Amino acid sequence: MDSKTHQHIVYGTDAHSWTQVYFAGYGWVNFEPSAGFSQFERPTPNQYLPGTSSIVPPGGLNPNTGKNHKTPKNELGNIGGTTSTQTPGQFEAQLGRQAGIAIGAVVLLILFSLLLFSIWWRRLFRHYNVSAQIYGRICILANWAGIPLQYSQTPHEYIQSIAVAAPDEAPTLHRFEDIYVRELWASPDSTEHPLNTGEVRDLPALWQRLQPRLFLYAVKHPRVLMTLPNRTWKSLLRLRAKRRARRALEQDL
Hints:
This protein has helices at about 10-20, 75-80, 90-125, 130-145, 155-165, 170-185, 195, 205-220, 225-250; strands at about 20-25, 25-30. The protein is mainly alpha-helical. It folds into three domains: about 1-75, no CATH class; about 85-125; about 130-220, no CATH class. Strands 1-2 form a two-stranded antiparallel ribbon. The relative contact order is 0.06.
């Protein structure tokens, strides 16, 4: 009893002596016991059958596991476990393994990306005829290399601009452009139509020659890599503006 406040004061050590928890098969067990409790007796197997109960007499668990018990310094090592130190050789070996895992992950990511690109590239423009497929792929590669197609340009003008940038492939490009334009605009009954002259069969060979060289030119002049961050930033700004407009509309409603 506090003489000033006339209230009962309960200390932590006293509270421990009052706390009990019921455990099935054990009964009421003193929880967080103080040092004054003794160890309780554990039940033997099949001692408590269904429908029976037992109350463990006042005692306690381990008297040295209380909440206010201070662990001696010589017991801290057992609680924390053993610590191991690595030698410089072991550290370098572990660092090498981690670097190998990181490099392997990057290589796998690159291979997976190339596989997806190959699938996408082969399925591109698959619903068009062969000449249109080749022309579409030429436009994509040229755009990646910094030669974009203008809306006012005809196929002849655009192929001519590509041939100026890649003069080594100019004969092959002009040969393809001639077949593509005649297949696009010539009358199917005309003798000049590539289907009637058999020149359509030359298109796969022309593309087999052009494709690796145009890819190499695009790699040497990677305009798409230079413009990709700018395009990504503009896309993010447009997306942010759309979200703001949507939020403003929802607030007005």
